[in-house]
Amino acid sequence: MKIPTMALAAVAMLSLAGLTGCAAGGTTTASSTGCDGKLPSGTTDISVWYHNGEAPDVAAMTQLAASFNASQKKVHVTLKVIPDMTASVKGAAASKQLPDVLDTDSANAANEAWSGYLRPLDSCIPASLKADLLPSIVSGGTYAGHQYAVGLVDSGMAMYAYKSDLVKAGVRIPTGLSDAWTASEFTDALAKLRAAGHKQPLDLWKTSPCAYCTETYLWSSGGDLVDRKTYKTASGFINSPDAVTGLTTFQSWFKDGYVDDNSDGAAFLNHRVSLSWNGFWQYKPFAAAAGSDLLVLPMPNMGKGATNTQGSWQWTMTKSSKDPDALWAWIAYTLEPQNVAAIATSNSGVPSRKSVLATSALYGSNGPLALIGDGLAAGKTVARPMTPGYPAMDAAYATAITDIIAGKDVKTALDTAADAINSDLKQNEYYPTPK
């Protein structure tokens, strides 16, 4: 199953664990130099790195940079599309050659801020703009009380389904998060769908496990990657009894043969499966395949309530920047409503501004993906932990979920993940907040 580059922001976190180290944090100080509302005289040239997304996304951002440059003469943007953002950031940071504006995954912003790469945006973002941003955009870019990142789009997952299959099998159809299938009800639904003719009715990332795509099952079970009150231990959280119970049920779907390998990426498109837990990016191809038979449903409630994920690429200012106001001029331009709408249209992402989301054909209250949009707007999604230690947490969970899908004892897999996270926390002195 292919994950678009936009969603790979989360997957790339696995490699970013290498950015951390005992000497990185604690002594880093946030720059006190912020925006003062004044641009330097003459033209300021700024460099901007953008992730190498799908072709329409890159084309839209390239056009946005061109229109920005044509609209005024005070700031000139040189946009560079980066094929491998993770490797490029690591290399540029080591050689002190980071760009002025860096497009980064929101969950990685805390690690980069702690490592001393980023400049806070607090003095740059007007209160009126911040009030119009989705709660997930604000929280997803905030670390140690400072806003370090702000983006144009957000993300989410859904259980896509063929309505006719559910009706034929006599499976209840949920209407939202509040009446999502329970874990046992979902297991029963899989059995009914098999009996109705679909031997393997579910697509659930079997051959390409995705941490970002499956962390919701941990959260819905009552587990978490870390103690979010202290950020000093994963023990009793990622491997809590509730987490073990929930992910044992999750594993049973694989053990009982309900999950299609989807090695060709066409399990749902070709109607081999009735259900696919997948990202917003699959709505358009799935809608083209299923037409009016397509349903967009919540994940099953694994014990502590159905939920959804959040987080995507966001703009950050690096400390390599020449003048914060020049950088903010570019970021503010991209955040204008019509530009947020243009980028969201190009990559099918959730518009980051409430005002734009409300009019979105996909995510507005009457749109086919309103389940995702409404959850983000209402603050009902779960953010990945905004801590410098998240890359290591993500890597540990990715290993655990891969082992669980492969049939390894669930508690052993989660205990190993807890040990790995605890080891990273201890090695980095629990990531002390920069002074």
UniProtKB/TrEMBL annotation:
<dbReference type="GO" id="GO:0042956">
    <property type="term" value="P:maltodextrin transmembrane transport"/>
</dbReference>
<comment type="similarity">
    <text>Belongs to the bacterial solute-binding protein 1 family.</text>
</comment>
<dbReference type="InterPro" id="IPR006059">
    <property type="entry name" value="SBP"/>
</dbReference>
<dbReference type="GO" id="GO:0055052">
    <property type="term" value="C:ATP-binding cassette (ABC) transporter complex, substrate-binding subunit-containing"/>
</dbReference>
<dbReference type="GO" id="GO:1901982">
    <property type="term" value="F:maltose binding"/>
</dbReference>
<keyword id="KW-0732">Signal</keyword>
<feature type="signal peptide">
    <location>
        <begin position="1"/>
        <end position="23"/>
    </location>
</feature>
<dbReference type="GO" id="GO:0015768">
    <property type="term" value="P:maltose transport"/>
</dbReference>
<protein>
    <submittedName>
        <fullName>ABC transporter substrate-binding protein</fullName>
    </submittedName>
</protein>
<keyword id="KW-0813">Transport</keyword>
<dbReference type="Pfam" id="PF13416">
    <property type="entry name" value="SBP_bac_8"/>
</dbReference>
